[in-house]
Design goal:
alpha+beta, seven-stranded antiparallel sheet, 6 helices, 7 strands, 19% strand, globular
């Protein structure tokens, strides 16, 4: 998984929901990530890896991720599957928590492209890499009940983040069906 994704996925939410007593700017990204991974999650949280399989990813992307989905975060709210991640934010403020994470990492100004068929707020976002060593990443974000799903895929080298759109749509349809 690209460094940007791991950092974006694992850090910032604690500060956004007030669980971090130290200002996030004073912490290094590793410390922020470690703190985020150990945060308490709402009782109705869903284990992200219960929603996605390696076979799902292979079928949708046409690429073998070469790893089985691996949970992270207290309660398993993050699922890393090699070429992407699924983050399941839960609770009444799940959508706001995701958006606060984007803001914290200064990715909230990235253009959001609304998408139909995944709920009223669903959108794609393609954050710009912070440096040349980071690849292109695409996110599809959707809300289902008290859960917000942020699904990301790394674009293959030489491809645009937008090229991951069909795979993201295919995977998100599966995820939302499994949540219901």
């Amino acid at each position: 998984m690209k460094t940007q994704l791991t950092t974006l996925a694992c850090a910032g939410l604690a500060a956004a929901v007030g669980l971090s007593p130290t200002p996030a700017a004073a912490q290094n990204p590793r410390a922020q990530s470690e703190k985020e991974l150990s945060r308490n999650v709402p009782a109705d949280s869903i284990r992200a890896c219960s929603l996605i399989t390696r076979a799902d990813v292979t079928k949708a992307t046409g690429s073998n991720p070469y790893v089985d989905p691996e949970p992270a975060g207290e309660g398993g709210w993050i699922c890393n599957f090699g070429i992407g991640e699924l983050k399941v934010y839960s609770g009444p403020n799940a959508w706001e928590a995701w958006e606060a994470t984007l803001k914290r990492f200064k990715k909230d100004q990235a253009p959001q492209t609304p998408v139909s068929g995944f709920g009223e707020r669903a959108y794609f976002v393609y954050p710009k890499p912070d440096n040349a060593s980071q690849g292109n990443v695409a996110f599809l974000v959707a809300k289902s009940g008290n859960h917000t799903l942020a699904l990301s895929l790394d674009a293959p080298e030489g491809k645009s983040a937008d090229s991951m759109r069909p795979a993201l749509e295919s995977l998100m349809k599966l995820l939302l069906a499994r949540l219901r």
